[in-house]
Amino acid sequence: IKKIGIITSGGDAPGMNAAVRAVTRTAASKNIEVIGFYKGYAGILDKDFVELSYSSVGGIMEKGGTILRTARVPEFKNPEIRAEAARNLKDLKVDGLVVIGGEGSLTGAKLLFEEHNIPVIGIPASIDNDIPDTDMAIGVDTCLNTAVDAMQKLKDTASSHERAFIVEVMGRGSGYIALMSGLSVGAEAVIIPEVPVDYNELTDRIWQERKRGKINCIVVVAEGAASAYSVARHFENKIGYETRITILGHIQRGGSPTAFDRILASRMGYSAVNFLLEGKFGTMVALEKGQTVTVPLEKVLSEKKVLDPKLIDLVNTLS
Ligand code: F6P
Questions:
Q1: Distance between CA 106 and CA 171 in Å, rounded?
Q2: Residue among 16, 39, 128 whose CB has most ligand 1 atoms within 8 A, to mutate
Q3: Which H/E stretch holds residue 219?
Q4: Is ipTM > 0.95 here?
Q5: What are the binding positions for ATP in this chain (predicted)?
């Protein structure tokens, strides 16, 4: 391999820059050229790229967002558009492509590999932690820390005013962010798409706790389960608290990555280059039992990540 292309694609995730830095520096140490395409697959289609070097990626690890910028490119579902991207990569003599992103982005990578033999490797990056076969994706830890910090602040004001807060978090179809942030702040309840909610039972439980003297209540709701507004309607006049709503929104996607995300991104970026050199094309770097391994993209994308039932039981037991 003489020239590696990198894209960051789909929703951004804190730690993407640390991955770009690790890929670039690992490649540079082996005298492999690196180019970074701007705005994900759009940059490949427009041949819009920047040459990356050991020194040009200095000082980016701690930055949130992605210096390569990102985009969702729905046109990539069209096989002719993918053929154009493959032609551009071949024209530019890119003989290894690192795709940093979530499921949609990894699907594009899989198709470039299967249809056009482009030597791709994926790096999982998505705050949702919904990518199968890897224990963690880049950005999850920072997102959780941001959500927990915000909820802790809400808990302060909730206690002062004896209020309930319904906090809506991201996660697309997954309840991971809601479950883990709820666990971390000791939320009274977590509403996630994976578990049907019985509002009668829930409102009754919160009301009982209120009667016993509780002065705050945090209910975390995953966007994939319900909106905070619809949950509030179920609670109206039934829980004994005045209720407020907070939607954390895109705050969850920004910020300087935590040490965990910097380390994970560095390990995955470094491994991605080494796996490409070993010819492990059409795969994704995954974290499995503490080690970086490869998993075929075909396998990753044929599965759905399931929330560990033990974690759900843990949260139910402690809340
Ligand atoms: O996949 C990451 C994510 O932040 C989801 O949690 C959320 O549903 C979605 O992206 C929001 O996408 P956009 O930034 O395009 O509004």
A1: 17
A2: 128
A3: strand 217-222
A4: yes
A5: 11, 72-73, 102-105
